[in-house]
Amino acid sequence: MTEPERVDVVVVGLGVGGEEVAGRLAEAGLAVVGVEHNLVGGECPYWGCIPSKMMIRAGNALAEARRVDDLAGRARVEPDWTPVATRIREVATADWDDTAAVERFTGKGGRFVRGTGTLDGPGRVRVGDAVFEASRAVVLGTGTAAVVPPIDGLADTPYWTNREAIEAKELPGSLVILGAGAIGLELAQVFARFGCRVTIVEPGDRVLAVEEPESSELAAAALRSDGVEIRCGVRANRVEYGDGGFTVHLTGGEPAHGDRLLVATGRSARLGGLGLASVGVDADQRFLGVDDRLRVAGADGLWAVGDVTGKGPFTHTAMYQAGIAVRDILGEPGPPADYHALPRVTFTDPEIGAVGLTERQARERGIPVRTGHTTLSSSSRGFIHGPGNAGFIKVVADADRGVLVGATSAGPSGGEVLGALAVAVQAGVPVETLRHTMYAYPTFHRAIGDAVRDLG
Questions:
Q1: Residue 33 pairs with which residues in a beta bridge?
Q2: Strand-pair partners of 251
Q3: 427 and 297 in one domain?
Q4: Is the same domain home to 249 and 166?
Q5: If 136 and its partner were Cys, which of 8, 22, 65, 171 is the partner (CB 3.0–4.6 Å)?
Q6: Based on the domain organization, do 321 and 352 belong to the same domain?
Q7: Can you give the residue range of the structural domain that contains 312?
Q8: What pLDDT is stored for residue 286 in this prediction?
Q9: 192 vs 334: CA distance, rounded Å
Q10: Are 162 and 139 within one domain?
Q11: In this structure, is residue 361 part of a structural domain?
């Protein structure tokens, strides 16, 4: 048997959270082994946040150019996907090469091992023929994978997930998207703005169902104005592929046709093959259960960070968790994890930012709810902005405590305006303080004051 190599920490999965944990612990002087079978940095820099937002930036530039006629003269717009694909390869992903990321980690003193890490009992990780024994901690940051529903015929087709969509050098003439969450909506709008005919298939009764109904209405209206066909309340039951195209048969509607099919129906943790049973952890759960210090429930010396924990599929969540895990492993003081003011942004145009609870979630928790609402088009900044000024701010307050428990900021700068609302929810800023705060004029965030005053 292979003699185990003793180290302080082993981090399995160097996505955003895992890389942050491994790098910071190495900088603290611990002997750290970082294990990654794919690309160091994970989904975000290669197939998620960074390249997708480059695509969105390009699509938004086209949309703004098309608004010139109403604002500043005449503009001729000719979409071209080539510079977008080139920029993603040359600037964002280095053609999906993680050499720089590996060197960033090893430069901090960590040791990098390329391969698949498997738990081999408490404190032990096997990578191929090598076994590492960690005296301080094992940290899991193995992320999530796209969920592919068991639709008849789908598995035998060349369907896309977000990865193939991001890697596309050329856009198809038509695209069917299964799922109307953030990923599906963002990519639908981008592809449509570059001339692709897009159809969204969603079994639920509205798009972006995890957010406020007003957000769903705004997003649907925006996408339809870009030519996207949205079919809600229908479910894919069979997929056929032939002659270079897809036919998606639907329960409750006519078939949808497209040159390509994008599956955007959610994500689940990569737990299979991790050897969780060897440390007494159930591998059949969708996500790893962790406490407020990111310790995996029922397993001593084991932490988990990032998407694998199910606390929020966002880079900022992973980075936040990484800081807590690092402090806990080093024995340093610091606050526990708190997700009551979790921010998220859907980067459609208009952007839809949200923090904390929706109105429905607050009511389901028995909170005495008051809401305030204002439209951006009725604000001075909205009037100045002109075309493309659709949006709103909605605040959800606990009437007994007099604080916000949730908020949505949707509009041209929805994600940026969200910052002030996130602070208000996180810190429990009194509604009366928000009501009497001085907001700069003329700004989009000034509408926060209007929404708060609408609380009554």
A1: 10, 111
A2: 235
A3: no
A4: yes
A5: 8
A6: no
A7: 5-41+98-145+268-330
A8: 86
A9: 46
A10: no
A11: yes
- Cα angle for residues 238, 241, 242 (degrees, 5° grid): 145
275 and 252 both lie in a single domain: no
Distance CA 85, CA 87 (A): 6
Please tell me the predicted confidence (pLDDT) of residue 244: 83
pLDDT tens for 168-219 read: 999 999 999 999 999 999 999 999 999 999 999 999 999 999 999 999 999 9
Alpha-carbon distance of 12 to 182, in angstroms, equals: 28
Q: Which segments in the chain show pLDDT lower than 50?
A: none
Classify residue 425: in a domain, yes or no: yes
Tokens coding 51: 């390249």
CATH code for the domain of 219: 3.50.50.60
pLDDT at 272 (0 to 100): 83
For residue 104, what pLDDT is reported? Answer: 97
Half-sphere exposure of 277 (CA within 13 A, CB side): 4
Q: Does residue 256 lie within any of the structural domains?
A: yes
CA triplet 67, 71, 74: central angle to 5 degrees?
70
d(CA 33, CA 42): 17
